[in-house]
Amino acid sequence: MGDLERAEKLVKAISGKGLHPMLKRGLYYCHRDFKLILDSVEKGENFYLYTGRGPSSGSMHLGHLVPFMFTKYLQEAFDAPLVIQITDDEKFFWKGQDLIGKEKLYAKYGGRLQYFNHLARENAKDIIAFGFDISKTFIFIDTEYIGEMYPNVCKVQEKVTYNTIKGIFGFSEGQSVNCGKIAYPAIQAIPSFASTFRKQFDDKKLRCLIPCAIDQDPYFRMTRDVADRCGEYKTSTLYSKFIPGLTGPGGKMSSSIPDSTIFLSDTSKDISRKISKAFSGGQQTVAEHRAKGANLEVDVAFQYLSFFLEDDAKLAHIAEEYQSGRMMSGQVKKECAAVLTPIVETFQKNRKLVTDEMLDAFMTIRRLRLPDYKKT
């Protein structure tokens, strides 16, 4: 990915930080118009970050950890403001019709939509536990912030055709699709328009940078296609690779498949047990492994280390030893568990400290602090 040297110099000047390991190692590996963000910073112009989450009933997992850890780094590295969207409406449109065995659960919260709103608030607390700066972070739930968003939602919906939406989601002819699914993409699009946050940004026109997984690209290609006609900047994006599931190549982590996932609610014993069973790139026998070494590209424990082990020299040493056959799979898995356990335990500790009052403070509509890049 280009422009990393320029980004490193800017980050050093702004915050004294270096490049994040996920950038140096190519885990965030492609982008759209990241150069324009760097151009803005060099000219002393502000930008903001945008990320989000679809609420779920279960614990977050390592796959969720990646974008939030990286977004927190970007916020600190560039001293940038951040908006975080919690999409209770999206989950309602896609999951809310699943009634089998859930009637009592939904009734407890007053209905299906209210249930997803409850999950949104709980998941927002999870996000706060990552340590985002409240002076620069605004968290919003779609059904609660829709009044501020709706003018821009209308602008996008008027400019995006049904055929475009059908292409994004793969709706087929004759498929029963509710109107919410068709209308929703505009709601995920418009947080990339600074005018959706007039009070937060003092009516300034700012560029937006979205760090996300590559599967989100269709949403933001659509957004970029209509931005000029809406009087907005085209959003910039940084795309990451998927962190693999425990079962190995071809599968990503999924809350619906517990054995494929390390949850942020797991104990240290859970983590060690799951990692010990993770797909290995080592050979079938010790003799064969010593002769051929490991395939790092498919080894789950090594892939996790490449995401979460910050020490570049140590990672390079493990790669050399494991690939040569001098290090065994069990040793790499032990290293992996030792890296993941304190990350998960720190999250759990921080999550216990998050209160409803803290959540309300993050969700209060207010001016966010903007850095003065002209001084750097």
Please provide a written account of the structure:
The chain is of the alpha/beta class. It is 50% helix and 9% strand. It is built from 18 helices and six strands. Strands 1-6-5-2-3-4 form a six-stranded mixed beta sheet. β2, α4 (62-78) and β3 (82-86) form a beta-alpha-beta unit. The chain is globular and about 65 Å long. The two termini are 24 Å apart. The model has no long low-confidence stretch (mean pLDDT 93).
Key descriptive features of the protein:
single chain, 376 residues, alpha/beta, 6-stranded mixed β-sheet, 6 strands, 9% strand
Describe the protein's topology:
Blueprint: H1 4-15, H2 21-24, E1 28-32, H3 34-42, E2 47-53, H4 62-78, E3 82-86, H5 88-95, H6 103-108, H7 112-128, E4 137-141, H8 142-159, H9 162-169, H10 179-183, H11 185-189, E5 207-213, H12 217-227, E6 236-240, H13 268-276, H14 286-292, H15 300-308, H16 312-324, H17 329-351, H18 356-363
Helix pairs in contact: 5-7, 7-18, 13-17, 15-17
